[in-house]
Amino acid sequence: MKTSNVLVLFLVLLSISASTEWPTHTVCKEDNLEIHYKSCDPHQDFAFSIDRCSDVSTHTFNVRAAILLRHNIKELYAKLNLIINGKTVLTYTETLCEPGLSKLIFCGKKKGEHLYYEGPVTLGIKEIPQGDYTISAELTNEDHATVACAHITVKNYLDYY
Description:
single chain, 161 residues, mainly beta, seven-stranded antiparallel β-sheet, 1 helix, disordered N terminus
């Protein structure tokens, strides 16, 4: 009896550790707008939320985001891809942290520290494009290690006119 219990426990633990895929999280879901995200870092998930989905159309909205750092952030680089129908149609890269340039409050944070941001975010675009699309976002540090990675799915049917 004890051997079978140990075997079952071992198989459960093995199946849990073999999974490298995180669940899809719903950020918001209203009549005309849905936003979901999924971590694409097999080692870590993170938390992200928007106060009200309807605020996204106002271009400035409040968010909350949290992650436990697995790597130092002396330098931080962002790469975003806009994917429509499985094809990348736009790529955007930006340096967010480097010596002498700190665009974010968490530049210089160390491995093991918690990052938490709660506050306003302003989109640099006039409208969120209508339709269904995916945004692939990856943050890497000076060692090319993944700090955070997400696939964000947007379904927008808001009528701006």
